[in-house]
Amino acid sequence: MIRLEHIAKRFEGKEVLKDFSYTFEQGLRYAVIGPSGIGKTTLLRLIAGLTLPDEGSIFRENGLRIRMVFQEDRLLPQLDLLQNVCLESGPQADARRLLSCLGLAAEEASLPGELSGGMRRRAALARALCAKPDVLLLDEPINGLDEAAKHQAFSLILQEMRGKCVICAAHDLSVLESYQTIDLTK
Amino acid sequence: MMDSTTSRKPLFGQKSRLLASGLGLLFWLLVWELLARYVDLSVVLSPPKEVFLTLFRLMQTGAFWLTIASSFLRILTGFAAGLFLGVLFALLSFYSRIMDALIHPLMSVLKATPVASFIILLLFFSRNQFIPGIIVCIMVAPVIWANGLKGMKETDPALLEMADVFSLSKKWQLRHIYGPSLKAYLLPGFLTALGLSWKAGVAAEVLAAPPLSIGGMLYRAKVYLETPEMMAWTLCVILISMGLECLLKHLLLLTGENGRRPAP
Question: Is-contact B165 A66, C-beta < 8 A?
């Protein structure tokens, strides 16, 4: 589905990824692990097409719907939560259901600035899931979430992304037990 | 231990600020009065009382209001056209390098050229009554273009990346991502351009002298050495310009308070 071949990526002379090859398959979940600065975010950005490799090639299946939860929430400050989750074309009923599953039903009319960091994080996840992606990229999605919210978020991801591909970069592996591990230090 | 926070009170209250403004105004009126007494020739410098009385007398005539309305319409039409062109050029400059290469030097020339040169040039090509509007448009467009383009360029790149990943249309991006940034930069430009448009518009009216115009009245008063009348018309322009700016600021404040404000 997504194949990376001999990828290399450098930032200001520093090599972040070197000769990295991997094939991501439909229906599988991956946990990208490694210490900070090892290239987890870079790998996700390469897959999303937000950055180009210095060397190597990336092959994506045609028409693949890739969506991402960034490290920052990147919600639009002037739109309420429901509008942020729906964006341009997401169905409102689906957005409401997802917000409700993530414990944000009462906040759908709130602006992001009126919410806590954890709430904004969950809203960013709801936005990505509402877009019905084939591949969901998660960059440290559980930062700022308490234990209960973490489990709530990951069980929703499991439910919504059944049969699809999830690639998650995270430090905390407690919720990623069923994920195939890609250790960038090796 | 409890955390305590106290709101910081402004150094001066609204009443104190009003009082300070009033005293400042009074001081300059006094300077004007003293200067007028020193010159002691109304044709050169009329005293404040005479100017205010002349303005009061003018205000009682229908021609005064017709002149104001006529100039107002001319200048605001030019302002609206400048606003439209400024935003259009900003969008074209932002989205197309070729268009930017064409628009950039044009705007630089428009900004650097003295307004009088344009007025004199236009006197050869256009009917006198259109010149003030065209001049205002020429003065306003570069200010709006520069601010608009800066607003577009300063748009949060993180939100643009998000829009890219979520395949949001350009139209949606323009409305929800570029729009708020554009608005934040356009509003100060809008206020600057409004003040500029009155100065340039009346200057154009003085040289082009279209019928029923404040500039035309200024010119007539100067020719007939009616200094109190000339100063009364000048005062009138200042009051209109300040009034419009106040009104606009108030309206913007109301929109900000009633509308949904962006998060910090």
Answer: yes
Best A45, A72, A78 residue to mutate vs chain B (most B CBs within 10 Å): A78
Which CATH number describes the domain made up of B50-258? 1.10.3720.10
Chain B residues with CB under 8 Å of A79 CB are: 176
Find the angle CA(A71)-CA(A72)-CA(A73) to the nearest 5 degrees: 120
User: Tens of pLDDT along chain A (186 residues)?
Assistant: 899 999 999 988 888 899 999 999 999 999 999 888 889 999 999 999 999 999 999 999 988 999 999 999 999 999 999 999 999 876 788 999 999 999 999 999 999 999 999 999 999 999 999 999 999 999 988 877 888 888 899 999 999 999 999 999 987 777 787 888 898 887
Cβ of A74 and B177 within 8 Å? no
Tokens of B55: 């303005």
- Domain ranges (residues) in chain A: 2-183
Q: Does domain A2-183 have CATH number 3.90.180.10?
A: no
Nearest CA in chain B to A65: B166
Q: Look at the block and give the residue holding tokens 């930017």.
A: B100
User: Which chain B residues contact residue A68 at CB under 8 A?
Assistant: 165
